[in-house]
Amino acid sequence: MAPQGDVPLQGNVDVDAGTLERLYRGLRRIRRVEEEVARLYPSDKIKSPVHLSIGQEAIAVGVCDPLRADDVVAPTYRGHAAYLAKGGDLNGMMAELYGKVGGCARGKGGSMHLIGMERFILGASAVVGTTIPLALGFALALKREGKGRIAVAFFGDGATEEGVFYESLNFAALHRLPLLFVCENNFFAIHTPLEKRWATDRLCERVATYDIPTTKISDGDVIKIHAWTTESAAALRTGAGPRFLECHAWRWREHVGPGEDYDAGYRARADLAAWQQNDPVERIGGRIAAPVRAAVDAAIEREIADAVAFAEASPFPDAEELTAHVFAE
Amino acid sequence: MSSRSEAAAPLRAAAPERRLRYVEALNEAVAQEMARDPRVFIFGLDVDDHKGIQGSTVGLQQRFGRDRVFNTPLSEDAMTGVAIGAAMAGMRPIHVHIRMDFLMLCMNQLVNMAAKAHYMYGGAVKVPLVVRSMIGKSWGQGAQHSQGLHAMFMHVPGLKVVAPSNAHDAKGCLIAAIRDDNPVIFVEHRLLYGTEAAVPEVPYATPFGQARIMGRGDDITIVGISNMAVECLRARELLSAAGIAAEIIDPISLVPLDIETIAASARRTGRLLVVDNAWMTCGASAEIVARVLERLGTRALQSVGRMGFAPTTCPTTPALEREFYPNPATIAERAHLLVRPDAPAWRPAAEDAALAYQLQFRGPF
Fold first, then answer.
1. How confident is the model over A279-320, as pLDDT tens digits?
2. How far is C-alpha B78 from the geometric centre of its chain's CA atoms?
3. What are phi and psi of B355, to 5 degrees?
4. According to the CATH classification, is domain B8-198 in 3.30.470.10?
5. Cβ(B82)–Cβ(A136) under 8 Å?
6. Which of A88, A212, B49, B311 is the most buried (most CB within 10 A)?
């Protein structure tokens, strides 16, 4: 009920070969998209601040892969990974970063406000914690609908300091709403470490007082995350109340922007090295047959090149777009 | 201009025999819309208790069930997010707050999400949300139960703001708000709850962006917002005793704002007084005066004035509270000064001012 450290999952979890390949494709695709965004960024073609997901791919991929297509996810402003993992259109994302009218938000949202309602990806918010209750509202609607769909709220460690997080936990548990709370704990809110923000690191224990089952996965193992989600989603579809996952992760790059910032002194490159040694892209990739892996990689590169070309070719919005969508007609 | 004035003319006369109180009109509007549309639900602190938000939600849970009418924890921030999320999912929530002051706990969700979602996501989602809240007054409501904060919401693109002043418009505006695909801040006033008006039984929507001329007059245009519309009607009676004919306009909706009707009236009377149920600084009264002057030019009017809350926190003691609000006597006195700036000072007799409180707006609608 009040876990300290990792909660062991039942037995030795693993996945079949098909799932393994999907997971690899998902991880690699996000990694490569983000690297390409970082590469393009100095060209000033990307007209939006970017909060890259590099290093945190496993959470989005592990959580989204077991979901149904009509399940709902609410990503954060560091949301490229969740957007892509849930099936968000890469062309729409790239054009959105470029500020083009072909973007998923017609160029009006940018990197921090990606949205893909056709894939049930809620719009992300630049205000930390703000989308947690929106996912809760969707969960309420899904429960009323009664078709077994569930919602997932992604949020960072910083969001757990907002009052709305606890308000949402309480309401979700009170009404047994089909919502998975997934905390991406990368230890920093911008540059401020947990030690300056949390009285204790017993986050799961705090959440458990709402009678919400909690799990902590601190090694970034995508297969454990996948197993947790598979089991939790099945439980929620049959009426179990909400569940909570705390996943440790390492943000490889700076808070916002394409580069690294280990020279700033607020965190150590040695920590990065430890996480890189355990990089899920390579760990999962190493379990895939080389020809298969090469084919997956090549397909990803083609898709990224196509997306960049799409973004380049898409026009900027006309000036009339400024006043469109203030109100829904 | 003339077509807009016609649009602002009184609506078709209602069946005269059926009168409802404001609170009953609110209740009926919600009940009729819930019966019509299964996507509509209503929730908020105390909506299902024995008092039912002063009666405005009484009986709804018995009729529509606990899934569609339910109480909430005191978690206004998250509950507003729940409403927005449910609205994006295709439901049509009505979130109720028993005082407008509590909306300050909802500001992040209302300003950063509800107002912006349709725009920020390029039209990919809609937020058909109604946020009901009530402005308190008297009985020592004091600092945090009395605020009229509609101007804060008027400031933010993407929110509609309506403040009906009578039972007829309360029903019509609430139905219109529920049917609207945008977030609507629905401003009620506690002292209006008991007031009666002709209210047709059939569901009807009062269009937003059409002001109502509540009383005709040629000497001065007085705009009254929310409960101040009623106070201005009372002032009009007092002014008539002094031979001044005031035209009283209730904007009904503040966003969108029917500035055409107000400007046309002010152009004709040459004088404009805006009385808000709120503070004046950066407020609705400032907005209305500015827009009228932009439209008519600075020389079109002989005199312009504004009235509102005293620039203080609302005190509880009646000795100070009565100085805090405009009232029919002070409104009449100010209007008199605007119409006859060179005449000797005038104020209505105390007994007339007291009698003015018996006046209720009875249409025409």
1. 999 999 999 999 999 999 999 999 999 999 999 999 999 999
2. 26
3. -65, -25
4. no
5. yes
6. A88
Residues of B in contact with A130 (CB under 8 A): 81, 108-109, 112-113
Residue with tokens 């006195």: B333
Q: What is the pLDDT of residues A228-245, one digit of tens each?
A: 999 999 999 999 999 999
Over residues B97-142, the pLDDT tens digits come to: 999 999 999 999 999 999 999 999 999 999 999 999 999 998 889 9
A17-314: CATH, from 3.40.50.970, 3.30.450.40, 3.40.50.720, 3.30.70.270: 3.40.50.970
Please name which of B266, B353, B277 lies closest in space to residue B309, comparing C-alpha atoms: B277
Does any CB of chain B come closer than 8 Å to the CB of residue A148?
Answer: no
- Residue B231 catalytic? no
* Residue B274: Cβ within 10 Å count: 29
The amino acid at residue A317 is P
Chains A, B: CB pairs < 8 Å: 137
Positive or negative, the CA dihedral B258, B264, B269, B271 is positive
* ipTM for the whole complex: 0.94
User: Tens digit of pLDDT for each residue in A62-74?
Assistant: 999 999 999 999 9
Which of chain B's residues have a Cβ under 8 Å away from the Cβ of A134? 81-82, 84-85, 88, 113
8 Å CB contact of A130 and B126 = no
Sorted by sequence, the CB contacts under 8 Å of residue A126 that are 6+ apart come out as A77, A112, A113
